[in-house]
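Quiz preparation item.
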């Protein structure tokens, strides 16, 4: 889910739960968008532009990473009908991008970047900051990984990817990342054994590289696939799943200190709406309201 210019966008996905998303028949290449009304409600949904075709093969993607930078949306990795072979793959490497109109609404046609992510992966996470997009590995063809990559972007296609010298402290999938005020934050996810409680953070350098990752405050409960955002100086962790199986509707939050550390986490009295417990993925803020789909 991406929120921009008064619209909410839902990109790709699967028609079944993530554990069963293992074939082209259940991964999607479609996108949908809806306007956000002045009172905060959502208008009716409209089918948008589909993911691009590569050598006559229509691309589908579940378990993607997505982010927005300036007036472009970037979709990275995932699983589905990857590349020109026309067969399902658990891990894809392509990067797609589309332009968001200044007044919102239908996205432009999707384009395949000439710079795919350095290695195919799914259940990864992405964010953007100061002219760069960041891709943090999830599941790769050889298992979980903690690599971080960054590339210039914003004015169309992303540039060549650089491998960050400093890795995340945990090898994760289904985690969430968000960049804010010169720092990058990693929350939630699964390391193959447990859902780690601490949130990782690192400083973002002027050249786009990221410093050493360090653990800061711990969430009250570990969770796969949460949404993560910062608003008015507070970091929020929304929804998710803990594998028991329990889907969360709860929302945790902590103050962001000037040195990038977090205060102690608390749980908001009001979580997601009834029936809203979910493995949430991306989301976004518009007019002091948070949206997740």
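Solution:
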């Amino acid at each position: 889910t991406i929120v921009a210019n008064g619209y909410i966008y839902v990109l790709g996905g699967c028609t079944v739960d993530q554990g069963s998303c293992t074939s082209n028949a259940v991964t999607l290449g479609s996108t949908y968008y809806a306007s956000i009304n002045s009172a905060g409600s959502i208008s009716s949904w409209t089918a948008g532009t589909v993911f691009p075709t590569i050598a006559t093969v229509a691309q589908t993607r579940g378990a993607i990473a997505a982010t927005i930078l300036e007036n472009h949306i970037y979709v990275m990795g995932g699983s589905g009908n990857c590349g020109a072979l026309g067969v399902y793959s658990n891990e894809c490497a392509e990067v797609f991008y589309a332009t968001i109109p200044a007044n919102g609404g239908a996205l432009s046609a999707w384009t395949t970047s000439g710079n795919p992510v350095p290695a195919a992966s799914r259940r990864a996470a992405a964010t953007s900051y100061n002219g760069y997009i960041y891709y943090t590995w999830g599941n790769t063809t050889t298992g979980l990984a903690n690599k971080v990559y960054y590339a210039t972007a914003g004015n169309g296609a992303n540039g060549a990817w650089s491998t960050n010298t400093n890795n995340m402290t945990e090898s994760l999938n289904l985690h969430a990342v968000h960049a804010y005020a010169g720092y990058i934050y990693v929350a939630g996810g699964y390391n193959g054994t447990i859902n780690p409680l601490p949130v990782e953070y690192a400083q973002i350098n002027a050249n786009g590289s990221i410093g050493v990752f360090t653990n800061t405050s711990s969430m009250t409960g570990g969770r796969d696939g949460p949404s993560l955002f910062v608003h008015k100086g507070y970091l929020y962790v929304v929804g998710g799943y803990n594998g028991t199986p329990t889907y969360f509707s709860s929302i945790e939050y902590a103050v962001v200190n000037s040195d990038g550390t977090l205060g102690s986490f608390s749980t908001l009295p009001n979580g997601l709406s009834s029936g809203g417990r979910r493995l949430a993925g991306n989301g976004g803020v518009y007019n002091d309201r948070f949206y997740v789909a």
